[in-house]
C-alpha cells in the first residue's frame, strides 16, 4: 500500500532541486531540434526514477511512461516544451545563457522543470490509478515540434486518451492560474504580397504604374478587413510588418513586396480573413492598373481547449489555490502555440500559470526575461493534482 501523497508538501521539498535544474537548462539553451543536451538530461533523470523512457520522437522529443500503483484504465499525457529562442540574452546573472544568440526567453526551461518535478513526485509516490505519459517536446517556437512528434507516431505508439499543457503567463499574479473553456491562443499565418507595376522617373508619374501607391492603398484597406468581416466579439489581427521596394529618391520602382501576419481564434475566421485579404489585394491592384498576388505560409492552428477537459483543469486549479485565484475565460492571446496540434488529435486543455507582474524581466521573448522560480512548486503541484483528479 503506497503512502498518501501530498503534492504541495512534496513540491516544496523539491523546490531547491527544481531551481537548480531550471537554471542549468536556462544556462544551456538549445533551439529547435537541437535539444540534445536537454533531452538527454531529462531522459537520464526519468530513467533513474525507474520509468520507461522513449527518446528521439520527433527528432529530440522524449516520452516517459509511469503506471500508477492502483489499477485503472486512464491514459493521460502531460506536455512541456524544451526549446529556447534564437535571441541574445542581455542578463548578467550567473545562470545567463552560455550560448550566444540562444536564450530561454519564453520560460520553456521552467515548463520542463515543473513537469520533471511532477514526474519525480509521482514516481516516488505513485498514488494514482492509470498511466501517465510525460511528453517533453522540442521546437515549439515556430518549428511545430508538436506536429513532428505526432507525425512520428506519438498517439499511435502511446495510447494517450487526453492531453494537457501549461504555459507561464506574465501579467497574471504568482499563485494564480487562468483557464479557458475554448480558444486560448490564435492561429498564425504569414503572407507575402508581390505588387507588379511599371517603373520609371519619379518626376514623370504619368508614365508609370506606381507599385508604392498600390502598396499604400493595400496597407490602409487591409486594416478594415477584421473590423468589417469578423463579428465584433471575435478576435483577429492582420498586421503588415515589412515593405520592400525602391532603390533611389528619383526612381519609381517596378515592384514592391509586403510581408505580414494573420491571427484568428477559429478555423472559420482564419479562412475568411485569408480570402478577404487575397480579394482586396488583387482588386486594389487591378483598380490602380497594376497586378498583385498573395502567397500564404500556413502556421499553427488556433489553440482551442475542449470544454469538458478545461472544466477539469478549473476544478483542479480552484482546489489548489481557491476560486479567487483562478481566472475563468479571460481574453485569449493572439499569440500562437503548437500544442494546438495535439488538441486537434486528442481532447485536452492548455492553461496559464501566473508568472507575476509584466516587467522587463518577466515579458516573454525579451532579452532580459527570466522564469520566476517561485512558481516551480505550484506548477509541479498542479500536474500532480491533475493526475490525482483524473486517475483516481
From TrEMBL:
<dbReference type="GO" id="GO:0019877">
    <property type="term" value="P:diaminopimelate biosynthetic process"/>
</dbReference>
<feature type="binding site">
    <location>
        <position position="108"/>
    </location>
    <ligand>
        <name>Mn(2+)</name>
    </ligand>
</feature>
<protein>
    <submittedName>
        <fullName>Hippurate hydrolase</fullName>
    </submittedName>
</protein>
<dbReference type="InterPro" id="IPR017439">
    <property type="entry name" value="Amidohydrolase"/>
</dbReference>
<dbReference type="GO" id="GO:0046872">
    <property type="term" value="F:metal ion binding"/>
</dbReference>
<feature type="domain" description="Peptidase M20 dimerisation">
    <location>
        <begin position="190"/>
        <end position="285"/>
    </location>
</feature>
<dbReference type="InterPro" id="IPR036264">
    <property type="entry name" value="Bact_exopeptidase_dim_dom"/>
</dbReference>
<dbReference type="GO" id="GO:0050118">
    <property type="term" value="F:N-acetyldiaminopimelate deacetylase activity"/>
</dbReference>
<keyword id="KW-0464">Manganese</keyword>
<keyword id="KW-0479">Metal-binding</keyword>
<dbReference type="InterPro" id="IPR002933">
    <property type="entry name" value="Peptidase_M20"/>
</dbReference>
<feature type="binding site">
    <location>
        <position position="141"/>
    </location>
    <ligand>
        <name>Mn(2+)</name>
    </ligand>
</feature>
<dbReference type="Pfam" id="PF01546">
    <property type="entry name" value="Peptidase_M20"/>
</dbReference>
<dbReference type="Pfam" id="PF07687">
    <property type="entry name" value="M20_dimer"/>
</dbReference>
<dbReference type="InterPro" id="IPR011650">
    <property type="entry name" value="Peptidase_M20_dimer"/>
</dbReference>
<keyword id="KW-0378">Hydrolase</keyword>
<feature type="binding site">
    <location>
        <position position="106"/>
    </location>
    <ligand>
        <name>Mn(2+)</name>
    </ligand>
</feature>
<feature type="binding site">
    <location>
        <position position="167"/>
    </location>
    <ligand>
        <name>Mn(2+)</name>
    </ligand>
</feature>
<feature type="binding site">
    <location>
        <position position="365"/>
    </location>
    <ligand>
        <name>Mn(2+)</name>
    </ligand>
</feature>
Amino acid at each position: 500500500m503506497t503512502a498518501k501523497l501530498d503534492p504541495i508538501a512534496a513540491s516544496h521539498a523539491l523546490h531547491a532541486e527544481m531551481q537548480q535544474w531550471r537554471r542549468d537548462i536556462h544556462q544551456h539553451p538549445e533551439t529547435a531540434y537541437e535539444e540534445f543536451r536537454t533531452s538527454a538530461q531529462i531522459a537520464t533523470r526519468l530513467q533513474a526514477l525507474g520509468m520507461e523512457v522513449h527518446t528521439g520522437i520527433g527528432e529530440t522529443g522524449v516520452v516517459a511512461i509511469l503506471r500508477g500503483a492502483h489499477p485503472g484504465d486512464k491514459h493521460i499525457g502531460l506536455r512541456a516544451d524544451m526549446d529556447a529562442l534564437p535571441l541574445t540574452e542581455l542578463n548578467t546573472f550567473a545562470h545567463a545563457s552560455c550560448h550566444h544568440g540562444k536564450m530561454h526567453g519564453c520560460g520553456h526551461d521552467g515548463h520542463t522543470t515543473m513537469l520533471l518535478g511532477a514526474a519525480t513526485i509521482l514516481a516516488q509516490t505513485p498514488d494514482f490509478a492509470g498511466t501517465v505519459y510525460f511528453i517533453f517536446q522540442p521546437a515549439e517556437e515556430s518549428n511545430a515540434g508538436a506536429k513532428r512528434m505526432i507525425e512520428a507516431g506519438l498517439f499511435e505508439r502511446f495510447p494517450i486518451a487526453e492531453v494537457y499543457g501549461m504555459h507561464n503567463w506574465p501579467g497574471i499574479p504568482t499563485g494564480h492560474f487562468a483557464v479557458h473553456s475554448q480558444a486560448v491562443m490564435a492561429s498564425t499565418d504569414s503572407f507575402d504580397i508581390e505588387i507588379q507595376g511599371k517603373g520609371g522617373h519619379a518626376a514623370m508619374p504619368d508614365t508609370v504604374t506606381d507599385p508604392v501607391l498600390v502598396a499604400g492603398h493595400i496597407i490602409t484597406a487591409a486594416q478594415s478587413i477584421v473590423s468589417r468581416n469578423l463579428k465584433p466579439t471575435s478576435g483577429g489581427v492582420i498586421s503588415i510588418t515589412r515593405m520592400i521596394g525602391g532603390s533611389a529618391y528619383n526612381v519609381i520602382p517596378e515592384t514592391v513586396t509586403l510581408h505580414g501576419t494573420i491571427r484568428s481564434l477559429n478555423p472559420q475566421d482564419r479562412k475568411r480573413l485569408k480570402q478577404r485579404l487575397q480579394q482586396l489585394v488583387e482588386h486594389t491592384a487591378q483598380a490602380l492598373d497594376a497586378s498583385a498576388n498573395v502567397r500564404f505560409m500556413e502556421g499553427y492552428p488556433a489553440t482551442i481547449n475542449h470544454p469538458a477537459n478545461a472544466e477539469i483543469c478549473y476544478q483542479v486549479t480552484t482546489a489548489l489555490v481557491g476560486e479567487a485565484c483562478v481566472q475563468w475565460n479571460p481574453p485569449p492571446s493572439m499569440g500562437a502555440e503548437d500544442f494546438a496540434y495535439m488538441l486537434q488529435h486528442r481532447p485536452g486543455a492548455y492553461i496559464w500559470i501566473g508568472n507575476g507582474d509584466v516587467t522587463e524581466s518577466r515579458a516573454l521573448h525579451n532579452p532580459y526575461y527570466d522564469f520566476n522560480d517561485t512558481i516551480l512548486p505550484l506548477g509541479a503541484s498542479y500536474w500532480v493534482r491533475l493526475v490525482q483528479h483524473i486517475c483516481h
